[in-house]
Amino acid sequence: MPYDEKQQSDRPWSPKIVAFVCNWCTYTGADLAGTSRLKMDANVRVIRLACSSRVSPLFIIKAFERGADGVIVSGCHTGDCHYSTGNYYARRRFAILRDLLQFMGVDDDRVTFSWVSASEGNKWQEVVNETTARVRALGALHAPPQEKGGETP
Amino acid sequence: MTQRFLSHADLAALVAAHRRVIAPVRAKDDARQTDYLPIRALADAALGAALPRRSLKEFFLPPTEVLLSYRQTKEGVEIKEVPTQAQPQVILFASPCDAAALEVVDKVMDWEYRDELWFGRREATTIVGLLCSSMDSSCFCSAIGLGPDSPRGSDVLLTPVEGGYLAQVITPKGEALLAHCAAREASAAAVAQAETARQQARKKVENNAPAIPDGFAAWLEENFDHPVWRTMALRCHGCGACAGVCPTCHCFDIVDEHDSSDEGVRRRNWDSCQTAKFTLQASGHNPRQGQSERFRQRIQHKFSIYPKRFGEILCTGCGRCCRVCAGGMDLPEILGGLIALAKKGQGESGQ
Amino acid sequence: MKELQELAAKLLADGAVQVVLGYEEGPRGVRPAFITDPAQAGRLVFDARCVQNLATYLNPRRQHIVQLGKPAVVVKGCDARAIAGLVRERQIARESVVVIAVRCGGVLQRPEENAALSSETTAVRCAGCDAREPRLYDYILGELPPDPPVNASRAEQIAMLEKMTPAQRKGFWDEELSRCILCHACREACPMCFCVQCTAERALPQWIDPSPTLHASRAWQMMRVLHQAGRCVDCLECERACPEDIPLGLFARYISGAVEKRFGYKACDDPAAPAPLGVFSTEDGEEFIR
Questions:
Q1: Closest-approach residue (CA) in chain B for C245
Q2: Backbone angles phi, psi at B134, to 5 degrees
């Protein structure tokens, strides 16, 4: 089941945030934040991808399905993509995804898109802390999945 | 079959006396439509409105249900079964085509293996049918040998008469349902009124499709390769909407939903032979490659294979498949064409 | 209409095509027709009840139709957009289909009721139509009728949804999608959903849970709508096909509107126009990116 009821009851709730980051810029920037010992909330699980363009909207949908309360998607600044044009395509895709999430009633504040370069350790710290604070304020996303059809015995 | 009279007040009291009562209710998104939904009082039920969009099937075989849950431990796998005893419920104003369908599907649910989830709910449910008054040109219950007044599948069958309903008690369960209510013996006038209502209802539907003749099931089997199948399903999208709304379609898919931890559930979900992947095998071979083969299967299963195996046509003529079909497939038309071919005695050689 | 019937008969008799996909009278109103015999061309009709998007039948997966031979297909302007989409995405070659376009005066939201066109009966998708004179065709028939009355109910519904809070919107969709049984009729009726293996059918990895629970239904609809962004032709066949009467057309309309607002692109019947999510501009807005 996508909702881990047992875990939830054992510990007080803390936001679970999944971050899909590009290898060349944001991941390196996050690494810099770490080596600089910048203080960050420990709620983010980082998933490293080759490029922000690799992020399919399905990843974000799946992350929310599987228990994430918030999602961060981050890549290189436009013009700096390691693969030249990846983040331009991604930008269009993310824009539409965001519009759809809003239309479905998923709160804007749960998804953060950012461009964080390899030297922007501070910016990564801000993105992480701000997102965690926002998602904490919004609360847990999940109710346990609902059954449909006739009443189960 | 004893006949009693139930006033509107009697029926309202009966509804109030039961914890869970399901009846047709006006749909929120479209007031012309109804759905079978739980009601709290008799006044919530919609009478004389359209046939509910979905059949009663979902109350006995939900679109998705958990069969078991499992957990991997150091010792092995722990399996937790689901309870098969269901909460008692009453289904009020069931359409005769929907009530009959349950008895038809009972046969396969008790074939080689008794489906305890299905029968747990069947045993816990009392069905109060109502003479159908919402027929339209897509209905063809009488062609199947049923009718708007068919008692098949109902424990009590109601026919509207002045001041209330004539109630025919059909099963001991029905008797038990009415035992606590103030139903009186029906007057001769009520009995006559009810008979007139039934005759009028039957007239409305009996000409919608030709009756399924004897030997039709055999003809279908013998003419499995008839050229008519090749062009019958051109407009069918293979979407499976027909199977979803059909009261007798019961195929399901079994999936294991495994969490990333050590737990998971096994579920069964509604499935349809009309979808492209229904018979797709792991090897990549699909014995029913195209929509022609898949649609042929639908007809064969309902009108030949199931009758051969269980003595029942796997259809009750409710017409929902025709109403939802986005491609304009029409079962009475298709059956009419096949019956005409069968009557002409044309086999493989003819066209 | 006579012009259409004569053209169909001629194309079949000359062997220019082997099947004409059009509309005919059925027991429940107008339905798709597959005419292979010139003598049967008289079955073809065209009027405000012809809502179906016949481009769906050109999907190369539909072997039993492909086997019939080269098709001619009767299209309205909106349907022609789907043909352009199929050509654009290399599913069919332009020369493999003969397009018979008909000038359209709007269609009915409920064709089985066969009423006159009014602001209540006109199909919601006809509102704002700029394709009543189709531009993709091999033959174009009919007189251009006057603009149909506008049925604004869909636009009003979207406006109402946009005014809601996110929680209210979620509540709206929770209620609508709770009826979804994941039958995928929306996908099968859609001309632009032609994948041999749908993402929802993948098991390794499994993106969309196959069991019809609310969260899975929501994930399915989101996935399908996102795959349709910039490709959806707004024909609303998805909504018509849904056996649960879920207003899927709201997604179609919304996503088309979002693509138009952001990228200035409207679904069109020019196969050479690129699909918006397959291209980019360095000037695209990024106000939502931190």
A1: B29
A2: -110, 30
Domain-embedded: residue B243: yes
Is the residue at B82 inside a domain? Answer: yes
Pick the closest to residue B155 from B91, B201, B199 (CA basis).
B91
Q: Give the integer Cα–Cα distance in Å for A143 and C215.
A: 10
Domains of chain A, residue spans:
14-138
d(CA A19, CA A29): 13
Domain span including residue B65: 2-205
Q: Which of A66, A150, A153 sits opposite B83 (nearest CB)?
A: A153
C11 contact partners, CB below 8 Å, separation of at least 6: C17, C20, C72, C98
B326 within 8 A of C56, measured Cβ to Cβ: no
Which of C162, C168, C262, C280 should one mutate to test binding to chain A, selecting the residue with the greatest count of A CBs within 10 A?
A: C280
As a whole number, the mean pLDDT across chain C is 92
Domain co-membership, B196 together with B306: no
* B164 lies in the same domain as B296: no
Instruction: Give the mean model confidence (pLDDT) for residues B58-77.
Output: 94
Q: For chain C, where are the E strands, in sequence order?
A: 19-26, 29-35, 44-45, 71-75, 98-102, 139-141
CA-to-CA dists, residue A7 to A2, A66, B263, B298, angstroms: 12, 13, 12, 46
Q: Do A104 and C219 touch (CB under 8 A)?
A: no
In degrees to the nearest 10, what's the CA dihedral of C275, C276, C279, C285?
A: 180
Q: How many domains does chain B have?
A: 2
Cα A94 from Cα C288, distance rounded (Å): 9
Nearest CA in chain C to B27: C245
Handedness of CA B282, C214, B27, B269 (dihedral sign): positive
CB spacing of B234 vs C65 below 8 angstroms:
yes
**Whether B333 and C27 lie within 8 Å, measured CB to CB:** yes
Q: Are residues B104 and B251 in the same domain?
A: no
**Where do the DSSP E strands lie in B125-219?**
125-130, 156-161, 164-169, 184-185
Per-residue DSSP letter, C192: T
ipTM for the complex?
A: 0.90
Task: Indicate the class that CATH gives domain A14-138.
Answer: alpha beta
Query: b/e per residue, C25-35, with b = 16+ CB within 10 A?
Result: ebbbbbbbbbb
Domain locations in chain C as residue ranges: 2-141, 153-278
The string of pLDDT tens digits covering residues C151-191 is: 988 889 999 999 999 889 999 999 999 999 999 999 999 99
d(CA B124, CA B58): 15
pLDDT tens, residue by residue, B142-187: 999 999 999 999 999 999 999 999 999 999 999 999 987 767 888 8
Name the residue facing B330 among C28, C52, C245 (closest C-beta). Answer: C28
Q: Do C213 and A148 touch (CB under 8 A)?
A: yes
Contact in structure between A72 and A18 (CB atoms under 8 Å): yes
Pick from B61, B54, B60, B57: nearest CA to B33: B54
Q: What percent of chain C has pLDDT over 70?
A: 100
Q: Does residue B231 sit within a domain?
A: yes
Chains that touch B (3 or more CB pairs under 8 A): A, C
> Do B140 and B169 fall within a single domain?
yes
Rounded Cα–Cα distance for residues C108 and C116 (Å): 8
The domain boundary residue, chosen from B153, B185, B205: B205
Contacts of B60 in chain A (CB under 8 A): 150
pTM: 0.90
Chain C residues with beta carbon closer than 8 angstroms to that of B258? none
